[in-house]
Amino acid sequence: MKRNIHHIGRLLEEQACLADSLLEGGDALTACGCAPAGAQGQALREALLETIQTLEESKKAFKSKQLEALRKKLIRVLAQAD
User: Fold this and answer.
1) How far apart are CA 76 and CA 48, in angstroms?
2) Local structure of 21: helix, strand or coil
3) Which residues of 37-61 are buried (b: 16+ CB within 10 A; e: fewer)?
4) The pLDDT value given to residue 35
5) Of 51, 53, 54, 49, whose CA–CA distance to 78 is shortest?
6) DSSP 31-77
7) How far is CA 33 from CA 13, 24, 27, 77, in A?
8) CA distance readout (Å), 43 to 26, 27, 48, 76, 82
9) Tens of pLDDT along 29-80?
10) Averaged over 11-19, what is the pLDDT?
11) Which of 25, 40, 76, 79 could connect to 36 by a Cys-Cys bridge, CB 3.0–4.6 Å?
12) Any residues with CB less than 8 A from the CB of 71 and at least 6 apart, and which?
């Protein structure tokens, strides 16, 4: 039980760090040391690229400003990660 409480405490601290960074407009994952590395990071990158491609392909069908903004944000995040 003590281990579970400690784990929950670490998760709450991580969430607080992420929230603070997002509110300040920073790069939350990098600021908190939460950016995935190795195979997990590569899988995340591939999923983001696939998402961007899907948003790009469907932009004429939906013509959503929100989806366009999301696509552009994902592109910026990937560019900053490189």
Assistant:
1) 11
2) helix
3) eeeeeeebeeeeeeebeebeeeeee
4) 55
5) 49
6) HTT----HHHHHHHHHHHHHHHHHHHHHHHHH--HHHHHHHHHHHHH
7) 12, 16, 10, 15
8) 23, 19, 9, 18, 15
9) 555 555 555 777 778 888 888 888 888 888 778 778 888 888 888 888 778 7
10) 71
11) 40
12) 52, 55, 56, 59
In the prediction, which pLDDT does 73 show?
85
Q: Nearest 5°: CA angle at 20, between 16 and 23?
A: 140
Q: Provide the token pair at 72.
A: 């552009």
Give the predicted TM-score (pTM) of the model. Answer: 0.49
**Rounded-to-integer distance, Cα 57 and Cα 60, Å:** 7
Of 22 and 52, more confident = 52
Contact yes or no for 77/48 (Cβ under 8 A): yes
Main-chain dihedrals φ then ψ at residue 63, nearest 5 degrees: 45, 50
